[in-house]
Amino acid sequence: MRTADTTFGEVSTMTLPELFERRVEETPDSLAVHSAQGDMTFAGWWTRALSIADLLTASFGSLRGERVALWFTNDEAMTYVSTLQSVFEVGAISMGLDDRYAVPELQRLFDLAEPRVLVIGPQLAERLGPEGFAELGLDGSPPAPDWDALVLPIEGRLIAGAPTPWASGDTDGALSPSRVAAPADDAMIAFTSGSTGTPKGPIWSQAAVCQYAERVSHCTYAVPRAGKALSDRDVLQSPVPLYTAASLIENIYPTVFSGCQLVFEGRRFDAAASEERMARHGTTVYNGVPAFFAMMCDLPKRRPGPAPELMIMSGSALTEGLYRRMRQRWPTTQVANWYGLNESGTGQTLNHGPDMERHPSSIGRPLPPTEIRVVDADLNAVAVGIEGDLLMRAPGQMREYFRSPDQTAERFRGDWLFTGDRAVQDEDGLIH
Question: Which of the chain's ends, N or C, has fewer CB atoms near its CB within 10 Å?
């Protein structure tokens, strides 16, 4: 069976190293990633990941269940995705860090999550400079930046030893996977920014990320394309910041599952360059946020030529005005909008097709197997047209908040996820 044909039930018992190994066995020489660093095949991706995993094990011993913080920009996507896979290979837990953080914000997360390791890319290391590294406790200057990633031991909120540089030429390609991880092991913590309080860290398991790779490939990107699942004939393009849960769940591992190509945007979004990449790479699915599509709609009239089959977005409401502008600029492209939370992992409802044409601002209908309820204060379902609290339930949603049972209890009503949003379901079943 091809990896891309694996069912939801089957991926529910898999780990991310198992999923990746299947992909490499099937299409090792297929292009996987296009980025500012260059292009990378699935075999190249895996070789780099195993090399970094070998370095992590040699430097720290067992990291199973430990947190590893990753700090990269989108311009360093090849190294980031390789390091991400290496974390899963050793059974550790990934923590993606916002590339805009300053040292105090890093240290606040270090206090919360107590990572054992920080892996940082050259761009952010350069931005920190000797003063920033000194503030983090590094005694002496970091090595000259002829490396792809710098591996730093962390204790408390400080660097606790000498940094170890890693470069893509450090491996001879003869490495073997460690097979440490189990499906139920925690794989990722996606901390919120904490702009309105203490950052919260939803947790997902290895199996949950595999489940979402299948769901996004077979459902989210397929339903608006008349059931056409993501496959090795697709090119997925996205400006979503790589450190987010959305990038990992909606872009990176659906790429591994389906065998498609993934086109990363640069660190800061450039609308004209993004539209040019669509044409150059033959993008079939573009996953973004409404603001980016609005910026592209502001460009001069686009040149004739193929457009993506699907433009799909989340992160904020889609207005009717933007929807009409998108339909005018890309008349052959399907436009879809999904709704979800950081805690839900990815979009759990979808608006597209005739529903979108009638009600562009609706969040649509639940995506199978997601369930949705609109309830009153006593958790009783409200009638059509009556406003209530929006609850959702789906396999793979976050297990809990990291080390925060009280916040976890506030978020769940039994196994229903309390979104904190108010909603109305209309007579056609659409949710607003």
Answer: N
